[in-house]
Amino acid sequence: MKEKMGTTGLIFNEPLLWEKGSPGRTGISLPRRDVDEAPLDKALTGDGPDFPDLSELDVVRHFTKLSQWNFGVDSGMYPLGSCTMKYNPKTNERQASLPGFAGAHPLLPERLSQGLLALMHDLAAYLGEITGLPAVTLQPSAGSQGELTGMLIFSAYHKHTGKPRSKVLIPDTAHGTNPASAALCGFKPVAVKSGPDGILVPEAVAALMDDDTAGIMITNPNTLGLFESNIRQVADIVHGKGGLVYGDGANMNAIMGVVNVGDLGVDVLHLNLHKTFSTPHGGGGPGAGPVCVTPALAPFLPVPRVVKDGEVFRLDENYPLSVGKLHAFYGNVGILIRAYSYILSLGKCLKQVSQYAVLNANYIKQRLKGDYHLPFDRPCMHECVFTDKFQQEHHVATLDIAKRLMDHGFHPPTIYFPLVVSGAIMIEPTESESKETLDQFIDAMQQIAREAKACPDCLHESPQFPKVRRLDETLAARSPCLKG
Ligand SMILES: *Cc1c(COP(=O)(O)O)cnc(C)c1O
Fold first, then answer.
1. Which of 144, 173, 178, 430 to mutate to test the pocket of ligand 1 (most atoms within 8 A of CB)?
2. Are 120 and 237 part of one and the same domain?
3. Least confident of 10-14, 129-133, 340-344, 473-477
4. Distance from Cα 304 to the centre of ligand 1, integer Å
5. Whose alpha carbon is nearest atom 14 of ligand 1?
6. Of 348, 365, 400, at which residue does a domain stop?
7. Per the CB 3.0–4.6 Å rule, which of 20, 249, 346, 373 could disulfide with 389?
8. In this protein, which residues make up the domain named Aminotransferase class V (predicted)?
9. Is 56 contained in some domain?
10. Residue 4 — pLDDT band, cuts 50, 70, 90?
């Protein structure tokens, strides 16, 4: 690929809709009226809403131009990865919009919803097989709601054994939602410091694990993009004291088809269908965070559950130990259809998704590690974390690097996260990017590293080419101008 990604295309200016059109112009022709004209009661309507008067073409051009100001995963590399926006095959959107699915109503009787119930039943079985944790609920509508479900299950389990517990261990490399979910469920989160190589040290867990600790929540791979290779030992320590192990599987993109999570000693795991299993997620929802558990914890899963009686599928509410209902009806079903379609269309190749995601991240890590400081120099999973330590010598910070990437036609990666790494730049290329695109991204990052030495001010003034240049973020937060 000789052509460089660039941002110097034809980008139109566009005013507000209120500055377009002219009074009386309209985009639709109403049929001739067949009743007498009657004035609206002014007392009721006031002067009426201030709608602009526009033709159809005014509106089409307005929104088309605005859409061209945008950057999405369909326009270029988006190194925020599966965690925010990986490429989702379009066929899965298509399946979710099939009329039988799109038109289904949650109040339809079971006999008229057999297709959807079968889909949910089979999807739960697939997720059980992929994770190695066979009992599954599809109800939670986000990863964090899956975590809350898991904590409710922890709590119900310990109550059922007759010994309620009050604390949950959470490593410092866990996702921020983990301590929040534990606290929301009434547990006291207790931080576990990870070791110098960025992963959990079994002795640190053993020192904190006691009879009042309900268990541990482990994000694996953790937020540094590293596989928790001591997880089995940690799980044995926690189980030895009667605790349970929660796995945050939002990053399943890295280990699908490769790791059996049940074999790692995890008792409860959530997945983010809107990260790993083909639902666009950048806009903030909706999502689905199914929870998979061991057979021993199945009685505590939420209701209703889809069960199969002979050839007929039905919903069953009759589980006395269940933590109850978490969502209206059965969850965000449209997301479940996309995941089902994704899994069926890939079949055994699901494993390759993870292998390519990990390969791509390690390729970037190896090629950039001379140019950017790599705090944990070891094989990574689906994402790698650099810092701005080398560039700080020239007073160039992570934010400057991220902004400059926009001039090269790339969406900036996740920055200043994870919090345990100062000035973090977290790059997640995903499985879908080709080597050519990765090379272009690496070239851009290397060029920025050279520029940081040669012309730090150029970076402070970036981005130069996009429609909107660098924003005053403090001003934008303190006094946002919402009128354009
Ligand atoms: C995204 C994410 C979550 C939270 O998922 P939501 O669907 O955003 O609530 C939890 N843990 C990890 C590791 C994540 O990446």
1. 144
2. yes
3. 10-14
4. 24
5. 250
6. 348
7. 373
8. 153-282
9. no
10. low
How far is Cα 138 from Cα 210, in angstroms, rounded to an integer? 32
Question: 168 C-alpha to center of ligand 1: Å?
Answer: 18
Q: What is the DSSP letter of 170?
A: E
Q: Which backbone phi and psi does 244 adopt, to 5 degrees?
A: -115, 160
Return the residue whose CA atom lies nearest to atom 15 of ligand 1.
Answer: 250
Q: How far apart are CA 180 and CA 186, in angstroms?
A: 10
155, pLDDT greater than 80: yes
292: left (phi over 0), alpha (psi -120 to 50) or beta: beta
Q: Which residues line ligand 1 (CB under 6 A)?
A: 83, 142-144, 175, 177, 219, 248, 250-251, 272, 287, 289
Residues 120 and 137: their CA atoms lie apart, in Å, by 10
- 203-218 mean pLDDT: 98
Please tell me whether residues 109 and 136 are part of one structural domain. yes
Q: Ligand 1 mean position to 111 CA, how many Å?
A: 35
Statement: residue 429 has pLDDT above 70: yes
Task: In whole angstroms, give the CA distance from residue 86 to residue 360.
Answer: 13
- Domain containing 110 equals 91-348
Q: For strands 384-387 and 414-415, give the pairing.
A: unpaired
The average confidence (pLDDT) of the chain is 93
Whether 61 is in a domain gets the answer no
> Is the domain of 325 the same as that of 234?
yes
Give the pLDDT confidence score for residue 69 in this predicted structure. 85
CB atoms inside a 10 Å sphere around CB 185: 19
Instruction: Indicate the residue among 348, 366, 392 that finishes a domain.
Output: 348
Say if residue 331 is in the same domain as residue 234: yes
Q: What is the CA(221)–ligand 1 centre distance, in A? A: 12
